[in-house]
Write a structure and sequence with these properties.
This protein is α/β, with parallel strands linked by helices and 170 residues long. It has a single domain, classed as Rossmann fold (3-Layer(aba) Sandwich). It has eight helices and five strands, in the order βαβαααβαβααβα. Strands 2-3-1-4-5 form a five-stranded parallel beta sheet, with helices on both faces.
């Protein structure tokens, strides 16, 4: 069984929501990498973006991969852009099992327009602008996401499908 399971995918794909349930089902701990960074820095992710910029946030994500690399029996929800910068995806794959929670741009828009979580990269955009941004960003990020060890459809009974797929890999 894998000691570290990384959930990757676009913002709004359910990495945190599903990650908590998957961890519970497997008897693992759960860690949300964005929350971990936020606690460590004493700022919200939008504050880090606003005050220090996206490049600084990406540096913090890379540092978080290295810092959490020692954790055992944990499901980790990564930030949506984390796998797409530097050699982050290679570090994730070397450290644990990577699972891409895949959703269509339409499904992501539906979730993100209702989300109470602030998304710095979508902040202040109309629904049409959000959809265009989601499509553009997803197209750019999918080459990294598609490197995951597994791809799971992000709709329906995600938790059971993920746990079953992990258990089949034993």
């Amino acid at each position: 069984m894998h000691s570290r399971i990384y959930l990757i995918g676009f913002m709004g794909s359910g990495k945190t929501t599903h990650g908590k349930k998957i961890a519970r089902m497997m008897g693992y701990d759960f860690l949300d990498m964005d929350e971990w960074i936020s606690e460590k820095e004493g700022k919200t992710i939008p504050e880090i973006f606003a005050e220090e910029g996206e490049s600084r946030f990406r540096e913090l994500e890379t540092a978080a991969i290295k810092a959490t690399n020692q954790l055992q029996q944990v499901v980790i929800a990564t930030g949506g852009g984390l796998p797409c910068h530097g050699n982050n995806m290679q570090m994730l794959k070397a450290s644990g099992l990577t699972i891409y929670l895949k959703l269509t741009p339409e499904a992501l828009l539906s979730r993100l327009k209702e989300s109470k979580t602030k998304r710095p990269l979508l902040e202040g955009k109309s629904e049409e602008e959000m959809f265009a941004t989601i499509r553009e960003m997803l197209t750019a990020r999918e080459p990294w996401y598609n490197q995951a060890d597994m791809t799971i459809d992000g709709l329906g009974r995600v938790n059971e499908r993920v746990v079953n797929a992990i258990q089949r890999q034993k």
